Amino acid sequence: AFQMPDIDGAIFDVGCGYGPIGLSIAKTNPDRTVLMMDINERAVALSQKNAQVNGVQNVRIFVSDGLSMVGNDVNAAAILTNPPIRAGKETIFRFYDGAYDKLVSSGELWVVIQKKQGAPSTVSYLEEKFSEVDVVEKKKGYWIVRAKK
């Protein structure tokens, strides 16, 4: 469902896990830098190993609580995330605010979230901040939401 925005800038995979999304985007878009981050050190180590095994070099993979370790001078054309629902709505909405600030003009936040875990409230919250919000796909209880700055 993800479509690469037609603007310059890095791609952020926040909560990258072992790296399938960020690495596949990096591999198919060698001209882009993909920043992959996760709070879990083991996940980051696995992503780094998977990048090495698959010869993906246009990535930076590091431990970060949300966007906390991303430099102030680094902005994104797109940020992708499956937010940590257990962290609570307040934490997730604060992340959305931070993501908005890290996006370049016309940059996009892509969120995968279950309907039963707050997809409707995520859409409502994003509509207050972003210029354009679309539910790109709904499948088996999951929503893919795109919010354009």
From TrEMBL:
Q: Where is the Methyltransferase small domain?
A: 7-145
Ranges in coiled-coil conformation: none
Q: Which Pfam families match?
A: MTS
InterPro entries tied to this protein: RsmC/RlmG, SAM-dependent_MTases_sf, Small_mtfrase_dom
The record's GO molecular-function terms, alphabetically, read:
S-adenosylmethionine-dependent methyltransferase activity
Q: Which UniProt keywords apply?
A: Methyltransferase, Transferase
> A GO BP term, please?
methylation
State the superkingdom.
Answer: Bacteria
Recorded hits in PANTHER family, A to Z, give:
RIBOSOMAL RNA SMALL SUBUNIT METHYLTRANSFERASE C
Protein name, per record: 16S rRNA methyltransferase
Source organism of this protein record: Lysinibacillus xylanilyticus
What lineage, starting at the top, does this entry show? Bacteria, Bacillati, Bacillota, Bacilli, Bacillales
